[in-house]
Amino acid sequence: MQRLKALRGFTTADKSSNQITNATEYNLAALQTSSDLDRPVVMVNVAVSIQKISQRIGALDVLSIGPRSEIELFGIMAAGFDPKRIKALDLLSYSPLVETGDMHAMKFADNSFDVIFLGWVLAYSTTPAEAAKEIVRVCRNGAVVVATGDFNSSTATHADASQTFNNEETRINSVDQVLSFFGSAVDKVYFRHDPDPPAQPMVMTAFSVKKS
Fold first, then answer.
1. In CATH, which superfamily holds the domain spanning 2-209?
2. Which carries the bigger pLDDT value, residue 78 or residue 70?
């Protein structure tokens, strides 16, 4: 939090039709009130438990999509990933460690990354399958994607969310739903955590990518 206050000044990515209404504004407000949120550490723990990651951890290229704050990046570094091989992308940034951009149209080259962390961001996309297609593009064959989100029933009524996001948010219901966004690119599923709401609302999966 002190680093955030010291850096001040935010940059934001250009808006696109793939982003839900008020995604940037919502996350900017959340960043300034909960920048020390450390929930991304659960993704990192899952990733490093996969042997093909742990055995080569310092030689892997990593992308964090939507880290919001630097906490996720520091967690990735602390796990043993090489800081020089870590990239981060978000709709907003206060940090030189995070580039601004849209996950539906990334500037990274094809086949750039061995591990991609996709934490709590698919719900901000109106076209998650398009986001997944772009994520697969920047993955190397065999790369591991760790994706997570909060359970949000497709049948429940969420007045506050509807008002904030113009009812455009993608409702994350299950691991199978998340995997369906990636379609035939899903190879081996290493981890799955389906929700048991309300006490355990998280949806998370880790899988390898198969590229044709």
1. Vaccinia Virus protein VP39 (3.40.50.150)
2. 78
